[in-house]
Design brief:
The protein is of the alpha+beta class and 95 residues long. The chain contains three helices and five strands; from the N terminus they run H-H-E-E-E-E-E-H.
Length: 95
């Protein structure tokens, strides 16, 4: 499922116009992105959580040339699956 599929599903199941469904999806993911960029954790109970890990900078090496280079500190988003989602996915395999 991609963003377009999600918008279509929201539109059909809730009787919304395409523009309203698209606005809802944009607001939802926009707010999630804003929260993560501020370093906040986003949790959807039973489904998943998103959080940001911070990495310190370090001295690395270019594998092609062998030249040392400075790798800057960075922040990356991570996804952790919720218990209910794990059970749901595992159950589908065991059917």
């Amino acid at each position: 499922m991609n963003k377009t599929d999600l918008i279509e599903r929201l539109k059909v199941e809730n009787g919304l116009t395409k523009n309203k469904a698209e606005a809802i999806v944009d607001i939802f993911f926009g707010q999630m992105g804003d929260a993560l960029s501020e370093g906040d954790r986003v949790e959807i109970r039973g489904f998943c959580s998103f959080f940001v890990k911070e990495y310190r900078g370090y001295t690395g090496r270019n594998p092609k040339t062998g030249e040392t280079t400075r790798v800057l500190p960075k922040r990356l988003p991570f996804f952790k699956c919720g218990t209910d989602l794990k059970k749901r996915v595992d159950y589908e395999i065991q059917k």
